[in-house]
Design a protein that fits this description.
Length: 232
Amino acid sequence: MTEKAFVRARRPEHKRQRREALLAAARELAVTSGVRNVSLGGVAAAVGLAKSNVARYFGTREEIYLEIATEEWRDWEAAVTERLRDAAGPRDVVAALAETLAERPLLCDMLGQMSTSLEHNVSVGSARVFKRAVLGVVARLGARVAEAHPGLTEAEGVELVAAGSVFAGALYPVSNPPAALAELYRQDPDIAAACPPFLPTLTRTLAAFAAGLPLMREGGYGGPSLGATHPL
């Protein structure tokens, strides 16, 4: 798509097309190169648009990725909801959460950079829209998790969903090392053995977390839950 075509777009539908093109370009670049390596200028160039003109649609690069992250969260919600329809207990619940996260590397990449990068340099309005969308996803999934996992309350279901996103964000960059570390692991298998595989590690961690939640409740441990305080 050329810059000339974009500059001449005046109608609301053309402006929507421009936003969608920017989002699509940012998504494709992130999938190819990783979110941290994508610049606002790179997104603009990918659609043939001057960098200065992007500000008419998104205030910053980070606001673009918050919108993409919102789409990814909702897509994850739909996938988990579908899986939980056939869940037959705790093992299936944990598998549904972990496996659908493993199937979404872009979401996991963004989760790993959310609090350190993507939530910076954004407007209050953009942050509010994003947070409310994510809190809604976590609340709805928490309720569905509790329905499928007889040992958990709804609040604990929310905690488990929130924990899945937190653990996935922490594990993803470790399990997908940069080029220098990947080469190191190739050369030194003993060091590579310390690199945790994403899905098995996430599954085991979530299983342990889920098993511990009722014990914490029965033991009288109070305080705010992970889901209530920090869903990302």
